[in-house]
Write a structure and sequence with these properties.
Bound molecules: 6-phosphogluconic acid
Radius of gyration: 17 Å
Strand content: 15-25%
Number of helices: 7
Order of helices and strands: HEHEHEEHHEEEHEHE
């Protein structure tokens, strides 16, 4: 990912007045994406984000809503995972299972989690790459295509578990790699930019004043991807949709409050 390329892609920011409004907007947006993908292709694949922000959105998706989501046609994967067991408080899978997956009729074999319980992050990443390649069955030489990748962003500009200055920023060959976070749990597994950017749609969700600086840097042309990895999210489909609350958007030049 060159820095110029990171400047060139199309992006839009939808700014909600507060966290609650952001949850409502994000829930509606994700619901629509899932339903449209199922209508277009008979099934849909979503990669879920971890962390705290998306939990309320997952809880919203678990509720009955319109249009209804046919969970029997949904496949769920994860953008990244901490190297902890699935029932650990820090598990991204554990959070998504409690907030959403245990509350909707999605077939268990359609939930593809990263095996955070493995002791070796490289082995966990290689295993996950094989699971995704086998399940999504991309054309030879092509990347697996998710209908929707949902991402968060850290105060340091990381996304998934692609952290500033780490080798994961430069990964161009593998679907998933081991990563190192500056905060516990340090050992991670993350999808890589080629997979994130092969998605039909990418949504980046952020809430809170602590994200404002990273988001402003992400929107500033010329900011090196290595210093602000979320800038490396540049889907071939062209569009990144940032769903922000006003606090997270506070340092953007012209936030348009929704
Ligand atoms: C993780 C996430 C990570 C997260 C950001 C924001 O495993 O932590 O995938 O990329 O999206 O760190 O996290 P919060 O939503 O908790 O602020």
């Amino acid at each position: 990912m060159t820095d110029d390329a990171a400047d060139a892609h199309e992006r839009r920011a939808v700014v909600a007045s507060d966290g609650q409004a952001l949850t409502a907007i994000a829930g509606t947006h994700v619901r629509r994406r899932l339903v449209d993908a199922i209508a277009a292709r008979g099934a849909c694949w979503i990669a879920l984000a971890g962390g705290r922000t998306p939990k309320a959105v997952y809880e919203r998706l678990a509720e009955a809503g319109t249009p209804a989501i046919d969970w029997a046609r949904v496949h769920v994967a994860f953008g990244d995972e901490r190297l902890v067991p699935p029932d650990h408080a820090d598990s991204n899978y554990g959070m998504a299972r409690a907030a959403l997956l245990a509350r909707v009729p999605i077939p268990a074999h359609q939930v593809h989690r990263i095996e955070g319980e493995r002791l070796d992050a490289d082995a966990a990443a290689a295993a996950y790459s094989a699971v995704l390649a086998g399940a999504l069955r991309p054309e030879p030489g092509a990347w697996p295509v998710f209908d929707l990748v949902l991402l968060g962003v850290g105060a340091d500009g990381h996304t998934a578990s692609i952290f500033p200055g780490t080798a994961a920023v430069r990964e161009t060959r593998r679907l998933a790699v081991a990563g190192d976070a500056p905060t516990a749990p340090e050992r991670r597994v993350t999808l890589t930019f080629p997979v994130l950017n092969a998605a039909r749609a990418v949504v980046i969700l952020a809430s809170g004043a602590d994200k404002a600086s990273a988001i402003a840097r992400a929107f500033t042309d010329g900011t090196p991807v290595a210093e602000c990895p979320v800038r490396g999210v540049r889907p071939a489909s062209g569009m990144v949709t940032w769903l922000l609350d006003a606090a997270a958007a506070a340092d953007l030049p012209t936030p348009a409050i929704e």
